[in-house]
């Protein structure tokens, strides 16, 4: 099996650390609490936040994203999305496909009346 280096770009570690810290603060989670919730070792979150690991495993990032109820891409990109947009996306992704369609229809109808 070939290992892929997830964090090829040097600034990706800083982006991941910034996004992870913001999500933790938003949920009032400590490093230890997030590590337990994600099922990672005790130092995984610390090492990412302090940028001690330049190439965290995708599996670890996925576990952290799941524990924070966000997408992996939300942790790995520096986006211009507001906290509200991120929350809406996280909620949307947890909906069933049928509920996603209902919500889209409602949003489109609401937009057309405004």
Short overview:
This protein is 67% helix and 0% strand. The chain is mainly alpha-helical.
- Annotated CATH homologous superfamily of the largest domain: lambda repressor-like DNA-binding domains
Can you count the helices? 7
Strand-residue proportion: under 5%
Radius of gyration: 16 Å
How far is the N terminus from the C terminus? 53 Å
The backbone outline, from C-alpha atoms, is elongated
SSE string: HHHHHHH
CATH topology of the largest domain: 434 Repressor (Amino-terminal Domain)
**Count of domains:** 2
Biggest sheet features? none
Structural class: mainly alpha
CATH architecture of the largest domain: Orthogonal Bundle
Strand elements, count: 0
Q: Helix coverage percent of residues? A: 55-70%
Low-confidence stretches: 1-10
Question: What's the CATH first level of the largest domain?
Answer: Mainly Alpha
Mean pLDDT over the residues: 85
Protein name: Helix-turn-helix domain-containing protein
Pfam family, one: HTH_26
GO molecular function: DNA binding
Domain HTH cro/C1-type: 20-75
